[in-house]
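[Meeting: bench + compute handoff]

Bench side (C.D.) handed over the final construct sequence. Compute side (W.E.) agreed to return the predicted structure before the next meeting so the bench team could plan truncations. Sequence as handed over:
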Amino acid sequence: MRFFKIAVPATLAVLLTATVPAVAQSAGCTGTPSATRLIVNIDGVRPGGGLIAVTVYADNRSKFLAKRGALYVGRMAATASRTRMCIHLPNTGVWALAVYHDANANRSFDRTGVGLPAEGFGFTNNPSTMFGIPAFSTVRLNVPRNNMATTVRLKYPE
């Protein structure tokens, strides 16, 4: 059985090149301090350092992966195998996350010469990306309470 490499349109590049200000960490969490924190476990992080970037999107299909559509991007040092990150959310509700491993810490989502991902990436709910960017409906995450945890598995290009 042969699997196809994922073809990702340029909109995935917006995930990391959007001009969303990075938010400093406060009390161990990224984002503007609030009463709602989400614990994000990023699994499958390859060794080699760099940063893990988590982009937070409101429950709005038109803003997901759109230029200037994100609320913010939180970053922290990558830890091989699993990186655990705490994110302040403005409130409980439905959110979407896009995650990537910025292996060279250049604060940009690197792509190959033909536009395919060159760094590991993933989304909330771990949808298939075999045929491109997942539908917004598959990445929506309900956060009904403080300190809820979710896991995102990174996928790396081969």
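W.E. noted at the follow-up: The chain has one domain: 11-153. C.D. will use this when planning the next construct.
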